User: Fold these one by one.
Assistant:
Number 1:
Amino acid sequence: MVHPIEGNAKLFAMLEKVDEEMTEQARCGGCLHCGGVLHRADYPRKPRGELGEAEKLFEKRFSLCCSREGCRRRLTPQSVRFLGRKVYVGFVVLVVGVMWAELMRTGAVLGKRLAGVPLRTVRRWDAWWRTGFTATSFWRAERARLLPPVDEDALVASLVERFGTTEQAATYRRVLAFLAPVTTNSARIAMGS
Ligand SMILES: [Zn+2]
């Protein structure tokens, strides 16, 4: 089996560029609380998973901080690289979710890990997509717009399939862009670990 993380260097570089652009856009909008000037205040991330060389593209979560004395509030823009506070990067969460669905469908023998992610974590994510994620206001608003509808009992594989193109990188880029609004606490939706 081809390792799902390998061979995606171009996709990862593209995702970083998208995050840079969304951060710049948010910066130009100024502080949401006082209108003050926002400065970059990235914070370090130590992503788990078998990212290899690509790991360096995931070492910073882009973030902004208000420069006005007395405010100093942080604004963390949307991201196509990180799904909330999850310690694995968004791409890995999606790919592993799809692999898990396939394994469940075929009843294949399982090891202890899936693409480097412990099975207990994979199972937790699987449950989260169908309960935690479907309960977000984001999903409740967006699901009606997806035609044909996405099978909520088969999330997240059904969502990836819905956005699917013939090219894997393009497919994941689209799904990650779709999910970007739920990736920040600034949008008041916590994603858990
Ligand atoms: Zn401010």
Number 2:
Amino acid sequence: MSDIAVFDGHNDTLLRLYGPASRRELSFLVRQDEGHNDLPRAVEGHFAGGFYAVFVPSPSRPGAFTALEVKFTESGYEVPMEGAIDPNYALHAAFAMTAGLLQLEHDSAGRVRVVRAKADLDICLREDVHAMVLHFEGAEPIDADLNALHTFFRVGLRSLGIVWSRPNIFGHGVPFTFPHSPDAGPGLTPAGHALVKACNELGVQIDLSHLTEKGFWDVSRLSNAPLVATHSAMFELCPSPRNLTDKQLDAIRDSGGIVGINFHVGFLHEKGSLDPNAPLSEIVRHIEYAVGRMGIDHVGFGSDFDGATVPRELGDVSGWPRLIAALRARGFDDAALRKLARENWARVIHATWKD
Ligand SMILES: [Zn+2]
């Protein structure tokens, strides 16, 4: 088995632990028999840390993404697109999830650290401290004056997805309809342009996952940072609007950026099948395609653990060594595996953050 440590582009563990529908008595520090991620299982899977998302679900559906309603059609399925949510509700929920993260760090007695600086990340990856980077998946908690951006930045926000799959004051997200192109709506609003500029100035990473293709090209034109999609897969292999086209992959590569490959079965299977019995090789297939198109330096993991249906064969964060082993069996050597598993993410973070 492998002992290659992993830094991951995306999970929704904060939603499961501290979201509006959470059971607050669950502790990240204690092994659980539900969900995908807790510290004992992370240690078992050499899961060294990652971006921890604050995702605010619709008040009418306070659980996870997997609770969305799917209507099957002849060629695939449709998922009713979510409307914009109330920013005050979003701010309240973001406070709850962020407070949960900070309390968890406190309670962990040094085993978990909220990472706010490059040096912190390097220390965590060296010293077996679980690194949590605060990420917002959708900018609904942020006001047009960007006061919340500046405040949450001081608290630790270092990565921001402009949208989830719904509209907000900054831009528009893609639906989950399958099959469908990511060119599924308008680009960024004027407030969105200002948000990109402010993120660049603060050194906050901008996440392109969930954004419409027009929004993607807006960010690509406006941003001076490497382009990042924290949890997306390959459109050529699975025509979901949540996946990236070859042209988008080329732009990410040319900017020095990264794609964290999403493990959600519906974004991997060529027909969009939501069957959790999809083999691990489905993830490997997307990683090999991404590496073939962009090169080994621009691909990482973006699991979507605790926010998606991942292949049963992977299971949870303790299953990461099985994915590493499957990649090794396909010819990735240790140097390549270390890049995929954490070094590419660390490079992009170093190029994006100011401190
Ligand atoms: Zn997502």
